[in-house]
Amino acid sequence: xxxxxxPPGYRGLLHAPPIVIVFSLLASIGGVLFGYDxxxxxxxxxxxxxxxxxxxxxxxxxxxxxxVSVLTLGAMVGALINGPVSDRLSRRWSITLxxxxxxxxxxxxxxxxxxxxxxxxxxxxGVSIGMLSMVVPLYLSEMAPPNLRGALVSLQQLGIxxxxxxxxxxxxxxxxxxxNGENQSPxxxxxxxxxxxxxxxxxxxxTLFLPYSPRWLMLKDREExxxxxxxxxxxxxxxxxxxxxxxxxxxxxxxxxxETVAEKYAGVNSKFKIMVSQYTELFTDxxxxxxxxxxxxxxIIQQFTGINAIIYYAPTIFQSxxxxxxxxxxxxxxxxxxxxxxxxxxxxxxxDRWGRKGILLSGAVGMGVSQLIVATIYAVYQxxxxxHTSAGWACAVxxxxxxxxxxxxxxxxxxxxxxxxxxxxNRAKAVGIAIGTNWLxxxxxxxxxxxxxxxxxxxxxxxxxxxxxxxFVWVYFFVPxxxxxxxxxxxxxxxxxxxxxxxxxxxxxRQRNPEASxxxxxx
Length: 523
Ligand code: BGC
Description:
binds beta-D-glucopyranose; disordered C terminus; mainly alpha
């Protein structure tokens, strides 16, 4: 019997209850803040008035590099701490907390009078972006019906790419405030930094109206509220059998976790000790470890396919392939941003129809072929770009194709998979670790790319190609398909390797629930 609430893909989105679309769009503003704050700085860094205000920064490339990276380091910390925070405060309140931190960080940046203020402001904003980057996909995946989970979590990536794109064009426009060069007004860079408070406030206030995640409610033993929320967001009556079945699955998973904890940590009263053990389990329990490995490898590979090498250093790359002049900046960052944004749409429309694996595999091929062609053209024409402008343009086209292949595939899947793989008690912690890994890898790529471009030149693209190949092989052989699988049913995908004891316990929980046996008739 078909237990889905509706069709997958764009048809499902068209029929989704408006409340689902509203909370998803609102939560994905978290992605906009992420993309905007990450993207805004490259334009700000090259503004004359910014250089005049912070001459030390303008003349020191290492310091500049640190200023870009301090955000990613802050974000790593934010993603890691937000696991326990979002368990304790709820996903919803941790979004509000993160936006408050973000506004503080943005105001400090926009009002900066000296270098420490800029650094501290970016580090604070980084912490909040890290928090949001971990909790938004978690929240969306806990709220989404299985047939739309991929699409709705992909909205986070759409938000990120929208943020990157908008930041570029705002920088582009405000750079003219007061005129060029000496005349440029401080508003040219203060305004884009201050503007990011607007979406943050919208998100912060909007979150007050968001429902709690039913899975979090169940984790806190608030079953009645979980039922009401589910009925509201699925837009079906409370006695709808699909809803009852979903609630039971969520409940069973929650009881299962609680009983396992009670048994494993019998006599341990300290919540902190239990939390530490739950972190440790992620590394030591084979079935959890397997999931963590998938979630983290996905992040590392995503970053090492070279996305941020292009996002951060596009102007340098385009100049190095012989494309110079006024149009370079536009092409470099502007077009990259537009393609990244537009190509996220296919993911939203098809993620739940094609599945994660198919999308990752085709994305790996697209990214790999593009990197291969860019690297090879670069190697052949590296000393004669001036005479071969068309070779430079061909490289540009394949860089755009790389971006397109990234955007519809691993750009989105990396947010979806971690949040759907884990059982309730470990979920938020594991997602925090995975997204923390993303930020750490982002930091490393940001650090090594300029050096690689300067030393091994075209070899940089072969280096990124190697990770596209690794992605293909690894996904093909080792990553299971998670499309449409209920979060609570993920255990089955990992071979039920919680052991016979666990399986028996789950069965016993189902039996203890009178409704469960009725519902099994539908299976
Ligand atoms: C990555 C970011 C990247 C962005 C670009 C995200 O999925 O995690 O590091 O800047 O995509 O679209």
